[in-house]
Design the sequence.
């Protein structure tokens, strides 16, 4: 079935360094959502991108949706220890006549203070 | 407070003993779903429901049942649990089936099947 590939699986950074996670789909997505899951917590919705080439910012977080609507990225500038967690992308696509939300496997970010 | 509530939060049980994980949302959401989360595999959808009395299989439905008799509740039933169903389970809801709605997740249920 439809897959959304997310890389890297793990990323360890020093506090203050930047971090980026990437998602790629083999098919065009209707939109893409990003979620953050803190250790021991549940996924929490961060943002949704809908338009081709869309870029949205939330403080130190920058989200991009590719021109072909097949890939997306989340970039964190100057990471802080509060950024620790697993970041998931979730792409919405048509499968068998109905829309499905397919999650990437996530990128686990650890930050060394 | 708007929330998705799952119970129990933790459960250790034995193979073959039927169990139910409850999920309730107070946001009048039409769409509800169940996911399991396993290391290295991310979130995989088990079942979903687009409205009352409407349920459908997700990517990994084998060994699970669900029901949606009321809008607010969406229980997950394991009729005969097996060790490979040991996992972290999340219930989620969203306002409706349209594509531009975020998912609201419950706090999770950690199941251990011995």
Sequence:
């Amino acid at each position: 079935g439809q897959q959304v590939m997310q890389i890297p699986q793990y990323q360890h950074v020093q506090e203050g360094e930047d971090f980026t996670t990437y998602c790629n789909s083999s098919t065009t997505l209707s939109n893409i959502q990003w979620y953050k899951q803190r250790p021991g917590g549940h996924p929490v919705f961060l943002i949704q991108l809908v338009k081709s080439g869309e870029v949205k910012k939330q403080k130190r977080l920058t989200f991009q949706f590719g021109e072909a609507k097949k890939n997306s990225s989340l970039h964190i500038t100057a990471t802080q220890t509060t950024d620790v967690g697993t970041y998931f992308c979730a792409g919405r696509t048509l499968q068998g006549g109905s829309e499905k939300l397919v999650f990437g496997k996530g990128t686990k970010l650890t930050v060394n203070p | 407070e708007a929330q998705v509530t799952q119970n129990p939060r933790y459960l250790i049980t034995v193979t073959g003993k039927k169990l139910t994980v409850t999920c309730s949302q107070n946001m009048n959401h039409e769409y509800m779903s169940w996911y399991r989360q396993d290391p290295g595999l991310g979130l995989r959808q088990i079942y979903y429901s687009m409205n009352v009395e409407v349920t459908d299989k997700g990517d990994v439905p084998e060994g699970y049942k669900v029901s949606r008799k009321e809008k607010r509740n969406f229980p997950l039933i394991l009729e005969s649990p097996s060790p490979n169903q040991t996992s972290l389970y999340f219930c989620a809801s969203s306002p409706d089936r349209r594509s531009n709605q975020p998912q609201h997740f419950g706090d999770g249920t950690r199941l251990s099947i011995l």
Remarks:
- Chain A touches chain B at residues 1, 6, 9, 30-31, 33, 35, 41-45, 48, 50, 88, 90, 92, 99-101, 103-106 (CB under 8 Å).
- Chain A has a mean pLDDT of 94.
- Chain A has no helices and eleven strands.
- The two ends of chain A are 40 Å apart (CA to CA).
